[in-house]
Automatic annotation (TrEMBL), chains A, B:
Protein name: Aspartate-semialdehyde dehydrogenase
Binding residue positions for phosphate: R101
Catalysed conversion reaction: L-aspartate 4-semialdehyde + phosphate + NADP(+) = 4-phospho-L-aspartate + NADPH + H(+)
Binding site for NADP(+): T13, G14, A15, V16, R41, S42, S161, G162, N329
Quaternary organization: Homodimer.
Chain segments annotated as coiled-coil in the UniProt record: none
Gene encoding the protein: asd
HAMAP family, alphabetized: ASADH
NCBIfam families, per the entry: asd_B (TIGR01296), PRK14874.1 (NF011456)
Residues at the active site: C131, H256
Semialdehyde dehydrogenase NAD-binding domain segment(s): 6-121
The EC number(s) this enzyme carries: 1.2.1.11
Domain of life according to the entry: Bacteria
Length: 354, 354
């Protein structure tokens, strides 16, 4: 291959795809052509990337001709069908869906934590973790490298954009119906006001929190809870790590938050934990409650790092830390991580050699 | 004493007081006079209780003349000053503030869990736990009685009415400013839109979650986190129970939610846990995710019980359960529990004998 590699963005019109185009416009420009792909519904639309208007093409086999790296930001069933097609045409696929994350022949990569894993990709596919995992795993990877992780108990506060454009539209519509009212004080009054159309959520999400994300798995677990456990284990290389998690949706547009109770091999100190977090790439320590400093989604949305606050040592266990972690689910949680993986892949000898 | 006991409600005009008057109007009527007390600002206002209009009187020593039980729903500093005054006049005080909860000579009572504790009250004062503790402790008490609790890891999703009327007004005002906009997608855009007046919260609470509740204690812990630990230990009679907790405020008007990771002495089964929760007084098991059944604050607000859903056994620890618990912070979380304690006290021989 000569010159700069060609990048394809599959799903360029979606919630993640839209943010990806912004990110590609902001990062160091290493790409030759950037090709935008979506469903036939969007073919012919023009979207801005790197300051240029680029026409969207429909997803077909030929759309991958000459593509070196293909970023997939489409529903899992679309990725499942089309990622192997792109790989067969010679593109390295970086997939953002759940389709391949637990496939043993597909690495699951977070560049700050396990960059080396991206090199072994027997199927020509690299997976990016779920946004909830990504919002916390960079900070945990840094702490694990020093202290050795033994157990995780996690609760999530997930933004509606984790469910795509439809999630955002649903919250905005419901907020318009409940704002300026006295709703939220009687059983079911919010539900009656917002009507039966709860969008991608099983319950109203305005003036509410919903303890469910994803589909039903065995024994009452949700798919997003299982994903957080499986993916944390795979990215950290700890296949038997105990992980207990409850996923909850909250009325926030973008940026997922998590409370984390992390137990380590030996005693930890808050001072050392703060040093690690303050210097870890991709992490911002924002933790001074006396000065009112802790991350909230409204403040971190639109930024790249994982923000960590409320760092405390468990009062009854000197080996455990409590954290509150916040990250933009559309940036590091999705688009940014795939852009970083694509850059990792592009930097390999096979790509940079003329 | 002859006839029915006299009840005083101190703080009858507040968020909790208002709900208490409704509850007193709904429960079996065991009281003689119900006297309504608030600050001099409210003296002369008329409030409805048991279908009658009752005039509010100002808080003075004389206001407690002839009072058998006095329910205090006022700020802690007001309770600290006035509860001993009421007790000295012969009233049994049931206090809802933080003033006496950790006092070794003041029992902390949840009638479903430790009713006996209400009988030993050397200071003539009984305390009711913080609303966050109350939202989960009835369910945990039932599980503890069977399985023996060993450890708790808890995260909260706390409603704004936990911060009183000012909390509710703040959320409603902020919602009116953000509804119908595209806010929530850029760093700080919500904060700029709602302005500097964040009410009783350190950050905007609309389109946001705020990992802070209460005041700053040692080592970065918040007072509400410390309260949940101290009070769970005291109510359950487990003075050394390890409790790790992070308290987070969410844009919900009323009803607190909590995720609970509870570890027990021996192996537990989900079937037995569900049996216990389905039959425990004050608890509703609402747990069938296949049918879309799990509690949410918007559905349980205005109801009395603790609602429990998402019951799962930890995948990596057969001694631990995961739960999602939801309860109305103004009813069981405050007003109802004090009304129940008052009924317990009134049922004692000394009160019922002529
Ligand atoms: N939202 C998040 O926080 C997040 C985080 C991490 C990962 N993810 C994953 O990223 C993927 C995209 O999510 P999203 O939230 O961006 O979804 P979205 O807003 O619904 O966008 C879906 C995208 O896929 C395209 N698409 C749908 N069906 C297609 C088909 N048959 N052929 C070609 N293109 C098709 C759509 O194109 P049209 O506009 O032409 O329909 C659109 O560009 C999903 O797998 C999701 O699970 C999302
Ligand atoms: N909100 C909850 O979920 C919750 C739950 C459990 C416990 N609590 C506790 O219950 C107490 C009341 O909380 P809230 O949320 O109801 O507060 P609130 O809405 O602010 O009401 C405060 C009440 O106290 C009265 N008051 C204030 N200063 C007074 C004074 N100097 N003398 C006499 N009365 C005075 C007020 O009377 P005026 O109207 O005349 O000012 C009002 O009735 C607090 O200690 C709180 O921590 C609250």
């Amino acid at each position: 291959m000569t010159g700069r590699p060609t990048l394809a963005v599959v799903g360029a019109t979606g919630a993640v795809g839209t943010v990806l185009l912004t990110i590609l416009s902001q990062r160091a420009d290493i790409w030759g052509e950037i090709r935008l792909i979506a469903s036939p519904r969007s073919a012919g639309r023009k979207l801005a990337v790197r300051g240029e208007e680029v026409e969207v093409v429909a997803l077909t086999e030929d759309a991958f001709d000459g593509v070196d790296v293909a970023l997939f930001d489409v529903p899992a069933e679309v990725a499942e069908r089309w990622a192997p097609v792109a790989a067969a045409r010679g593109a390295v696929v970086v997939d953002n869906s759940a389709a391949f994350r637990t496939d043993a022949d597909v690495p699951l990569v977070v560049p700050e934590v396990n960059p080396h894993a991206a090199r072994r990709r027997p199927r020509g596919i690299v997976s990016s973790p779920h946004c909830t995992t990504l919002s916390m795993i960079v900070a945990l990877g840094a702490l694990h490298a020093e202290f050795g992780l033994r157990e995780l108990v996690v609760s999530s506060y997930q933004a509606v954009s984790g469910a795509g454009r439809a999630g955002v539209e649903t919250l905005r519509r419901q907020l318009s119906l409940v704002a300026g009212t006295e709703l939220g004080t009687g059983p079911g009054d919010v539900r009656r006001a917002v009507g039966d159309d709860t969008g991608p959520f099983p319950e109203p999400v305005a003036l509410n929190v919903v303890p469910w994300a994803g589909t039903l798995c065995d024994d009452g677990w949700s798919s997003e809870e299982m994903a957080l456990r499986d993916e944390s284990r795979k990215v950290l290389g700890l296949p038997r790590l105990p992980v207990a998690v409850t996923c909850v949706r909250v009325p926030v547009v973008t940026a997922h938050s998590l409370t984390v109770h992390a137990r380590f091999e030996d005693e930890v100190t808050v001072d050392r934990a703060r040093e690690i977090l303050a210097t870890a790439p991709g992490v911002v320590l924002y933790d001074d409650p006396a000065a009112g400093e802790f991350p909230t989604p409204a403040d971190v949305v639109g930024t790249d790092p994982a923000w960590v606050g409320r760092v405390r040592r468990a009062l009854d266990d000197p080996t455990a830390l409590e954290l509150f972690v916040c990250g933009d689910n559309l940036r590091k949680g999705a688009a940014l991580n795939t852009a970083q993986i694509a850059e990792l892949v592009a930097a390999e000898a096979s790509f940079t050699a003329p």
